[in-house]
Write a structure and sequence with these properties.
The chain has one domain. The chain has 6 helices and no strands. Helix 2 crosses helix 3. The chain is globular, with a radius of gyration of 15 Å.
């Protein structure tokens, strides 16, 4: 999905507000989510912004910083896979559509 420069800038503006824990409208959230479902780059931007909002920006050079830079939800223990309790297919069930297809 190709984005015009104005759409990309609008999406980045909304994502920046999310990262800084500023309020956004429901319409803005729906707008970003629509593009995140079909574009892996925007999905990564949104995951990083949500991580920044929840955990603050990690600049210590540690593993949390690495996880945050990849947009991986590994900073919260409840998101970790537990092979004794979790089914791998269910665990990946919440993945975006572009990832489930691969």
């Amino acid at each position: 999905m190709l984005l015009s420069n104005s759409k990309r800038l609008r999406i980045l503006g909304i994502i920046k507000k999310i990262a800084h824990d500023k309020s956004i409208t429901l319409e803005e959230r729906i707008y970003v989510e629509k593009f995140a479902r079909h574009n892996s780059t925007i999905s990564l931007w949104l995951k990083k912004a949500n991580s920044f909002r929840r955990n603050g920006i990690k600049n210590d050079g540690g593993i949390d910083n690495l996880l945050q830079s990849f947009g991986i939800d590994g900073l919260e223990k409840e998101n970790h896979f537990n092979p004794n309790e979790d089914d791998i297919s269910d665990w990946f069930g919440g993945a975006p559509g572009w990832l489930r297809r691969s």
